[in-house]
Amino acid sequence: MTAQTSSWMTEDLADVRDLARNFFEKEVAPNIEKFIEQHHVDRDLWNKAGELGLLCMSIPEEYGGGGGTFAHEAVLIEEQARVGDTSWGVSLHNSIVAHYLLSYGTEEQKQKWLPKMATGEVVGAIAMTEPGTGSDLQNVKTKAIQHGDEYVVNGSKTFITNGSQADLVIVVAKTDTAEAKNGISLVLVEADRPGYRCGRVLDKLGQRGQDTAELFFDDVRIPTSNLLGTAEGLGFIQLMQQLPQERLIIAVGAVAGMEGALAQTIAYTKSRQAFGKPIFAFQNTKFKLAEAATDAKIARVFVDDCVSKHLRGELDIPTVAMAKWWTTERAMSVADNCLQLHGGYGYMTEYPIARAWVDNRVQMIYAGTNEIMKEIIARTL
Ligand SMILES: Cc1cc2nc3c(=O)[nH]c(=O)nc-3n(C[C@H](O)[C@H](O)[C@H](O)COP(=O)(O)OP(=O)(O)OC[C@H]3O[C@@H](n4cnc5c(N)ncnc54)[C@H](O)[C@@H]3O)c2cc1C
Fold this sequence. Notes:
- By secondary structure, the protein is α+β, with helices and mostly antiparallel strands.
- It is built from 11 helices and 9 strands.
- The chain has helices at 11-28, 32-38, 43-52, 70-82, 90-104, 107-119, 235-271, 283-311, 317-341, 352-361, 370-378; strands spanning 124-127, 143-147, 150-160, 168-174, 184-190, 196-201, 213-223, 273-274, 277-278.
- Belongs to the acyl-CoA dehydrogenase family.
């Protein structure tokens, strides 16, 4: 079966793919075990990627970016999935944090932060989730209350990707505690502000090389110019506008993950023998792999269509919600069936399929749980 070439691929993107593939094979794949052990990537990985132009590829050149599109980011996500890495929170930095700044930042904020994010001098994070609330974002308790020409930020966040390495955090906070969603604003908090503290790097089931952390804000004073955008109370709308891209990133990764699991399992079952023949020769194996190949193909076609629509500015929120829940659920099922076909070796963490199985699970939870995705879809029915 020939591999599907995405409809949105171009010659320019093929060069980006070569560059990204080389980078992941040289700088990331050999270090995955180390990243898992230390629960974070090496800080200079960001700088090395920045030097090669792999950071902020979809940010305009005037802000230090590559002047590309979401397709450039999609290529990077696919190449990261190809080597089975989940340690490096690069897509969150590139396609989420940088895009909040690009979309809502003042000219001064964009000039100040985006060039540094593109070189890797600054690592970005976004802090929505709190110990008491995740899905129900209107209920955040973190406050940014104005006192003169400053906001005073108090509260705590949890499960924050890039938490321990972040230099700049977009914090979802209430600037008006009497309001629900209309009281939410996004504020920029630098990690070197007094009162800012990164707590534990959390001990997770999977994605163990990723520095998912707790953050604490105790009377952190930031200038009012750190409000993202021009007016208070726009945070919820800004989140709703950006979350589709975040969900598309997950779907792109899920498809690439499925394709990777399938390729590994085809190779494994053709080389492993039982009862005098390759495991691949058993009808059950062929049926399971045929099902996985079908899932991967359908997912690829659907997500490619979503990417093309997104590039044209036509991707709607319910469609990307469908892509997010469906691809992540199918990716989990594909990984589970592929793991089974590896027998006991599938349960050994040195086998990429074992890692894919645990790493995939969270995709059904973050960026909006799959139940929330179905709520979004159901509202349109
Ligand atoms: C590895 C990892 C990385 C993460 N990175 C980040 C990050 O960088 N920044 C950030 O802000 N957050 C991050 N998160 C947090 C993640 O987005 C939240 O965990 C997620 O949104 C769910 O919120 P919750 O954990 O509070 O679960 P809850 O909201 O408490 O949900 C618990 C269960 O209830 C269900 N539920 C809730 N509401 C409804 C409803 N209305 N209808 C039906 N079912 C419902 C959920 O689907 C879920 O099954 C990360 C999480 C993990 C695990």
